[in-house]
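Chapter summary example.
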Amino acid sequence: MTLDELLHSLFGHSFTVDERADGVLLGEARLAPSQPLTLIGVVKAMPLGVEGALTLAHRVLAAVRSGQRQPILVLIDSDSQRMSRRDELLGLNEYLSHLAKCLMLADRSGSATISLLYGGGAAGAFVATALATRALVALPGAHPAVMDLPSMSRVTKLPLEVLQRMGTNTPVFAPGLTNMQLTGAITEVWDPKADLPGQLLALLRRMSELPEDARDRAGEERGGRKLAARIAAEVMRQAAAPRD
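The structure predicted for these 244 residues follows.
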């Protein structure tokens, strides 16, 4: 599904967007007569660089300052973060971290944050956008990868064949929509042939019931991450325990 098809499927003609040359998208939309949304995103399979991260963070903070508390929908069809020497020297990791924290602040301030993955998503750009919202939904055919297997092989020094074999049994070692859903990262996969506005409205109604971060528990229930929830709970228990 293209960006234009997605926007018209969700909002008809009730949206305005400004799509920049670097793939950053800013806009507003109306879902049903009484539900306005703030739109942001990284689209057209573009990488996310310093300027783009700042632009998105500025838009999110403006939404928080407005006090309107309308939902923020993040559309994702991106490459990884921009792999340029300039961006790295400027501290791209800090810009991405800032963007992620802005999205978390918006969610805690009453603006429900949802990412919709309809294309690609990878590495730090994916973490700072899609995984920084309270809910991440996807359409069939989306292809997320926090790290692809060749890159994972270079980092871990494990042969690619070993990682491929591990990925058949352990979702955390393999990219892809199914594996990402099993680990709990993806809240749900929508049916593009069904009523997309209805699916979005239904999720928005449930947002207040979703924990701030339920990914570890969802991963345990789905069998993709069997220990993460228990380890996180134990860390929290020990952190809250009184000190002698």
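To summarize the output: The beta strands are 15-19, 24-31, 35-48, 72-81, 113-117, 120-122, 135-138, 143-145, 188-189.
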